[in-house]
Amino acid sequence: MSLIPSNYANEFCDIYNSLDSTRNQWESRLLMKLDLIMFIWAKLVKNASSLYVCLQCFKYSIDPSQMEIHRSSCDKSVPGQSVYCKKNYKLFRVDGDQDKVMLFCQCLSLFAKMFLDEKTIYYDVDGFYFYVLGVFRQRATETSTEIIGFFSREKRSWDEYNLACILVFPQFQGRGYGQLLIDFSYEISRLRNKIESPESPLSAQGLNTYQKYWKSKIAQLVVNGCETGTAPEKWSINAMSQILHIRPEDVESALLSMNLNIQKSLITNTEVYRVSKARLKEYIPKKTQHVLDRKCLEHLKEMTY
Ligand SMILES: [Zn+2]
């Protein structure tokens, strides 16, 4: 990926060479266009032996003492509005269009790019909401919110995408937070009464994560309906899609990946998936450590998406 538009390269080089390592100048540079930040970032990563990143606000420096100074004065709170709170977990909605938080969104995007090889970075964060999941920590006299991961959502997606980019930071992966963030993205679809999907194409890892999510939701829907006697014996893909707010193509893709027994009716020319309840239960997560609790949603309903 080319980080520097060729017509701006010389100008960027001049600014880069004039960069002072003092904090004020450093931060004023950061407020420039993200194209420039990307350029500086790339130069820093390439030339520096270490890059120091604040995990509260994602500002960065190659100078550890500068980062130390920053850490002592960092606000350590996530900007934006809390839209979900359960125990010490919180989800914040951060509007990339607001001056005070634009830098946070840009730095978060840059840092995320380090873990998302196949994803294009979003230069213009103002068209997105960032949903940031954090855990509240209390250490001695200091309180802070440690950021676990986030997903971004385009404010106006003409393709009905409910998620543009998702990341759980490496130290938190494998604990169900990715499934929780995906669940939030579909909860927003439900509140908007839309049937939506993540932005495509998905990476191989992204597709795996989504397949796991779709399969667990389908399995829970059918098994719960069966056990409570409230579900039909036969489900159509469209009916599942309407209830789960998952696109019919994604429902079908998940069903196909379950390797179910498919029977074709010669009379109606339709295909029927046959599956036992026991088999479906295999797709329901055993550990439901992090489950979206609708009772804990704050303000999400009345917000405009
Ligand atoms: Zn900071």
Automatic annotation (TrEMBL):
InterPro entries in the cross-refs: Acyl_CoA_acyltransferase, HAT_MYST-type, MYST_HAT, WH-like_DNA-bd_sf
An example molecular function term from Gene Ontology annotations: zinc ion binding
Active site: E199
Stored Gene3D superfamilies: 3.40.630.30, N-acetyl transferase-like (3.30.60.60), Winged helix-like DNA-binding domain superfamily/Winged helix DNA-binding domain (1.10.10.10)
Transmembrane regions listed in the UniProt entry: none
Enzyme class: transferase
Pfam family of the protein (one): MOZ_SAS
Known EC number: 2.3.1.48
GO biological process: regulation of DNA-templated transcription
Keyword entries, A-Z: Acetylation, Acyltransferase, Metal-binding, Nucleus, Transcription, Transcription regulation, Transferase, Zinc, Zinc-finger
Domain MYST-type HAT per the UniProt entry, residue ranges: 7-285
GO CC annotation: NuA4 histone acetyltransferase complex; nucleus
Chief site of localization: nucleus
Annotated localization: Nucleus
Family from the record: Belongs to the MYST (SAS/MOZ) family.
Protein name: histone acetyltransferase
The organism of origin for this protein: Neolecta irregularis (strain DAH-3)
